[in-house]
Design a protein that fits this description.
By secondary structure, the chain is mainly alpha-helical. The protein contains 8 helices and no strands. It has one domain. The two termini are about 40 Å apart. The relative contact order is 0.12.
């Protein structure tokens, strides 16, 4: 656990560290605001659904740049960890360029991982429907169907847990020199990574399950306190609202609620982001130990 604590400490070292953290949190604002606006689109707001959808479309387009910057920052952070330099990189124009450059790699591996998982889930779902759809849907059959679907979801989550850190190793390899090589796009690379460092990678992943639980719990406590405070502000506001007014579509009600929800989402996203950077830091150490060291040994043998 000392290595994990050291990773978190390192994230708050270096010149301009505070500014970088503020910027990283602010970059989550537009995507979180988009989520808050979309969550407000329901039956109660059908009279203003068109303006909400227009705003959502604009926010989606505007959110592309922040997400590219965060993606570019992530690979720059991985690259910096190879040099064992303290702190985190700064945000600049190169983050957008790196985000654009690494985008094809993200898309390819989303397809590689997403399609098999979708097929597995769809196959299991159709299997359950086929098995029980042709018989009388008694309470026992309904319970069995729900149980098998739930079991399938658990299995897929476990598979994703096992696979995802080895996909991260592929991005770590790219970030080492910011260069594309054929093996980065080869799906068999995933299995080679598993063979080379399965135990060390899974151990780090298991440790960070506990870390994520702790950080998420701490974040939820802060969020609950903020929600309680906001609730009391809402009670005070309601005391001055006429009883016949439609408060749900009142801009004086919508705007503060959406902004408040967005800020809470930003805080939660920032906590997850910091935890993800610490996780990546530990995976870089595993990569250096199991892949770079092995490569050096091969080069020494060749000489």
């Amino acid at each position: 656990m000392d290595r994990i604590i050291s990773s978190f400490k390192n994230l708050f070292k270096g010149e301009g560290c505070a500014k970088t953290h503020w910027l990283s949190a602010l970059l989550f604002f537009l995507p979180c605001l988009l989520g808050a606006v979309l969550s407000y689109c329901d039956e109660d707001t059908k009279t203003i659904i068109i303006p909400l959808m227009i705003v959502s479309g604009v926010l989606f387009v505007l959110s592309i740049v922040p997400m590219l910057m965060l993606s570019g920052f992530y690979v720059k952070f991985l690259n910096k960890r190879f040099d064992d330099v303290e702190g985190i990189p700064c945000f600049d124009a190169s983050c957008i360029l790196q985000g654009l450059k690494v985008l094809p790699l993200y898309l390819v591996w989303i397809i590689y991982i997403g399609i098999p998982f979708i097929l597995l889930f769809a196959g299991g779902l159709f299997g359950v429907v086929g098995a029980y759809g042709s018989v009388n849907m008694s309470l026992t059959n309904i319970f069995s169907s729900v149980f098998f679907i739930f079991l399938l979801c658990i299995i897929l989550i476990l598979l994703l847990f096992v696979v995802s850190p080895f996909v991260s190793l592929i991005f770590i390899k790219y970030a080492q020199n910011f260069e594309y090589t054929p093996d980065l796009f080869n799906p068999l690379t995933l299995f080679r990574n598993m063979k080379a460092a399965f135990k060390d990678v899974i151990l780090v992943a298991l440790k960070f399950i506990l870390v994520n639980i702790v950080t998420a719990f701490a974040a939820q406590i802060v969020i609950i306190i903020c929600v309680i405070a906001f609730f009391f502000c809402g009670v005070i506001y309601a005391m001055f609202v006429p009883l016949n007014s439609n408060v749900v579509v009142d801009p004086a009600f919508i705007i503060p609620v959406v902004l408040f929800t967005s800020l809470l989402s930003v805080f939660a996203a920032y906590v997850k982001w910091i935890t993800a950077l610490a996780y990546a830091d530990n995976l870089v150490e595993v990569y250096k130990k199991n892949f770079m060291t092995a490569q050096l040994k091969l080069e020494n043998i060749g000489e």
